[in-house]
Specification:
This protein is an alpha/beta fold. It folds into two domains: 226 residues, Type I PLP-dependent aspartate aminotransferase-like (Major domain) (Aspartate Aminotransferase, domain 2), CATH 3.40.640; 118 residues, Aspartate Aminotransferase, domain 1 (Alpha-Beta Complex). Helices cover 34% and strands 15% of the residues. The chain has a seven-stranded mixed sheet, with helices on both faces. The chain has a three-stranded antiparallel sheet with strand order 12-13-14. α5 crosses α6 and α7 crosses α8. The longest helix is centred in the C-terminal third of the chain and has 25 residues. The two termini are 15 Å apart. The mean pLDDT is 97. The structure holds pyridoxal-5'-phosphate. Pyridoxal-5'-phosphate (PLP) binds next to α2. One of its GO terms (biological process) is L-serine biosynthetic process. InterPro entries: Pser_aminoTfrase, Pser_aminoTfrase_methanosarc, PyrdxlP-dep_Trfase, PyrdxlP-dep_Trfase_major, PyrdxlP-dep_Trfase_small. It is an enzyme of class 2 (transferase). Its cofactor is pyridoxal 5'-phosphate. Keywords: Amino-acid biosynthesis, Aminotransferase, Cytoplasm, Pyridoxal phosphate, Serine biosynthesis, Transferase.
Length: 384
């Protein structure tokens, strides 16, 4: 039977998995210090870019001898830049458990034509990391944004590996502990956990990654937008805020505001705690309802940012149509925007639980999910 609409509503119905909700303190007026209409190479612009790099280092706990650069084209730009610069010198293992990881497989196999072993897991599962040969270069995604599955920790990655690890951490950075000693390349985008703007990518390089850059030149051409070395030496300026091409200083200001907010909620620990609290609220709901479950099969690999759910009710024949209808109902009511599963993922819902989302909003939204589910089941019985 249909149930009555709940009374309480989320204050912010934005549960998209990217771009994600802005920090709760966001207000366009707070970006008024952006040096707009000035050169990004003027002292004021360079200082802002350097500050973005140094605050990223401080909050994420990135070691002092790692390089952090702001690069073009968001996470995709950062990750492909790493692949195109670093890979090809030794065999590669490509690990994929959802669509973005699968995209990097396509890059390695079809574009770069590398000597690559491809290991994949179904949506909801992860590759057996104990079976990975880390003496090869290994590319993987820390958190599968479209499957809601994450790497539990870095234990499987040996400290004395001969290969490099290239980690797409775009929906993990600022929400999960990243073991820097196990990661040679880490990339992310401002638009995810921090609720920043897209189009700018972060590229973090270990000393071993820099060593590779300076000792190996790939056989293929690199466009200017990808070039990290000149005359066999790292272009150090990129890692001090002298970006390859022109960044948006408005986006930089927005990122600085997000970093400021991150610090105000307790830095990385506070950000993780907020994401965990959001995910716990969803977990409690799932435990209390027998018609919904996590896509991630093992709780140890369950994401605390992109939480992916599937409907398990036997009365549902067309899972995709049902999930779409539930998401549409919640959007129409102004309760939850953009929570349908990713287009390549199994049918279901994806609720962003990263720290810019308030737990009170998740808690206010979930009774509406119950309402929407029951309304759609009722609609099914009327058709039958
Ligand atoms: C794991 C992962 N990799 C890469 C991307 C692409 O990010 P961007 O569009 O910021 O380049 C996304 C975006 O959702 C993602 O979730």
């Amino acid at each position: 039977m249909a149930i009555a609409q709940p009374v309480a509503r989320p204050v912010n119905p934005r549960f998209s998995s990217g771009p994600c909700a802005k920090p709760p303190v966001f207000d366009l007026n707070r970006l008024s210090d952006a040096p707009l209409g000035r050169s990004h190479r003027a002292a004021i612009g360079k200082a802002k870019l350097l500050s973005a790099i140094e605050q990223t280092r401080e909050i994420l706990g990135v070691p002092a001898d790692y390089k952090i650069g702001i690069v073009p084209a968001s996470d995709t730009g950062a990750f492909e830049m790493a692949m195109w610069n670093l890979l090809g010198v030794r065999p590669v293992e490509m690990l994929a458990w959802e669509s973005f990881g699968a995209g990097w497989v396509t890059d390695a196999v079809k574009q770069l034509k590398l000597d690559a072993e491809v290991k994949t897991a179904e949506y909801g599962e992860i590759v057996d990391l104990a079976g990975v040969d880390f003496d090869k270069d290994v590319c993987f995604t820390w958190n599968g944004t479209t499957s809601g599955v994450r790497v539990p920790n870095g234990d499987a990655i040996p400290a004395d590996r001969a290969g490099l690890t290239l980690c797409d951490a775009t929906s993990a950075a600022f929400a999960m502990d990243l073991p820097w000693d196990k990661l040679d390349v880490t990339t992310f985008s401002w638009q995810k956990v921090l609720g920043g703007e897209a189009a700018h990518g972060m590229l973090i390089l270990s000393p071993r990654a820099v060593e590779r850059l300076e000792s190996y030149a790939p056989a293929w051409p690199l466009p200017k937008i990808f070039r990290l070395t000149k005359g066999g030496k790292l272009i150090d300026g990129i890692f001090k805020g002298e970006t390859i091409n022109t960044p948006s200083m408005l986006c930089v200001e927005d990122y600085l505001l997000a970093l400021d907010w991150a610090r105000s909620v307790g830095g990385l620990r506070g950000m993780i705690a907020r994401a965990d609290a959001n995910t716990a609220a969803v977990s409690d709901f799932v435990a209390a309802h027998d018609w919904i479950d996590f896509l991630a099969t093992d709780p140890a690999t369950r994401s605390n940012t992109s939480v992916c759910l599937k409907f398990t009710d036997a009365r549902i024949d067309d899972g995709a149509a049902f999930a779409k209808a539930v998401a549409k109902r919640l959007e129409t009511e102004g309760i939850a925007f953009d929570i349908g599963a990713y287009r390549d993922a199994p049918p279901g819902l994806r609720i962003w639980c990263g720290s810019t989302v308030e737990t009170s909003d998740i808690e206010a939204m979930l009774p509406w999910l119950d309402w929407a589910f029951n309304a759609e089941i009722e609609a099914l019985s009327q058709v039958a």
